[in-house]
Specification:
CATH topology of the largest domain: Rossmann fold
Number of helices: 10
Mean pLDDT: 97
CATH architecture of the largest domain: 3-Layer(aba) Sandwich
Largest sheet: 7 strands, parallel
Radius of gyration: 22 Å
Low-confidence stretches: none
Number of strands: 12
Oligomer: single chain
CATH superfamily of the largest domain: NAD(P)-binding Rossmann-like Domain
Order of helices and strands: EHEHEEHEHHEHEEHEHEHEEH
Strand content: 15-25%
Strand order of the largest sheet: 8-7-6-9-10-11-12
Structural class: alpha/beta
Number of domains: 2
Length: about 325
């Protein structure tokens, strides 16, 4: 029996090509829908599989045959909260699509902190010869809150730089390139030991406002906080206060509670805080990466195999 797939996404032709390359097209009846359009009554009644970023409220309840949703999103909190997402519908996310680019951008943040290239560029503009020393990363402790796909890739790259890596994950099972893995209850210990703390946690009720004044107070005064996860994990006013008071050395932030970050927000003007415009996961071949991820998850779904991107609704990611 042919499965009915709805490509409810921009540039659907790219995903059709990916289906053709992998030989899956022959197993599917494929229809396309632009993101600003709504499914026809026939599509609502017959669609079993969807590729989409989002679905308007209430639409899923009108799709009785829907069995599987693939979203390119890596954060799925909004999906899980939907009242019309039935328990029998499998939800797969974009887990892994940022595996290359985000760790590289985090390394860029570490080099920004420790290497005086920006100051040297300023000196060049002023035609001033000023010699400066860079701070080595080798031997420093990198704490990763959230040793998922991205966290593990970052650990591998950091270990190659001779950094000591520790971190947290849902289970405290060992992770390659990580000296010590803590469960979620070890967050405070990671904060206390680390020279650089990278936040890569999922958006769940447990992680909201996790990094507050108390936890910032556990960090070394020389430590930096780097957030490439979700803006609501950090209490904004507590971070501003900690940086101003030199409780910690500074922060590099790529995600925020409200985006774009409002011009009146104190992050813009607080010395020691670097604001990035959510560049962490950007990639020039992003759509191809998403297409490859989609067809692999779809192949596994059709064959009844485990999907790397399958969402655990209890855990929230």
């Amino acid at each position: 029996m042919t499965n009915k797939l709805l490509l409810w996404i921009e540039n659907a032709a790219l995903y059709r090509q990916a289906l053709a390359r992998t030989g899956l097209a022959g197993q599917l009846e494929v229809q396309e829908l632009t993101p600003d359009a709504l499914p026809t009554p026939e599509q609502l009644a017959g669609t079993e599989l969807i590729l989409t970023w989002t679905v308007p409220p209430g639409v899923l309840a009108k799709m009785p045959r829907l069995k599987w949703i693939q979203t390119p999103n890596t954060g799925v909190a909004a999906w899980i909260k939907r009242p019309d997402l039935r328990p029998d519908i499998q939800l797969s996310c974009g887990r892994g699509i940022h595996r290359v680019q985000m760790p590289e951008n985090i390394l860029g943040a570490l080099f920004h902190i420790t290497k005086p290239y920006m100051l040297s560029a300023q000196s060049q503009a002023e035609r001033q010869w000023k010699r400066r020393q860079s701070k080595p990363l080798a031997g420093a402790t990198l704490g990763i809150l959230g040793l998922g796909t991205i966290g593990q890739e970052l650990a591998k790259k950091a270990a190659a730089l001779e950094m000591r890596v520790i971190g947290t994950r849902h289970s405290a099972r060992p992770v390659q390139h990580v000296e010590k893995v803590f469960g979620a209850q070890g967050t405070d210990e990671v904060l206390a030991q680390s020279d650089y703390v990278v936040v890569l946690l999922s958006d769940t009720p447990e992680t909201e406002n996790l990094i507050d004044a108390r936890r910032l107070g556990l960090m070394k005064k020389s430590a930096w906080l780097i957030n490439f996860a979700r803006g609501n994990i950090i209490v904004d006013e507590d971070l501003v206060a900690a940086v101003k008071a030199k409780t910690i050395a500074g922060a590099v932030l790529d995600v925020f509670r409200v985006e774009p970050l409002p011009p009146e927000h104190p992050f813009w003007t607080t010395e020691g805080i670097l604001v990035l415009a959510h560049l962490g996961g950007g990639h020039p071949d992003r759509e191809k990466i998403v297409a490859d991820m989609f067809v692999e998850n779809l192949r596994r779904y059709l064959n009844g195999e485990p999907q790397p991107g399958l969402v655990d609704r209890v855990r929230g990611y």
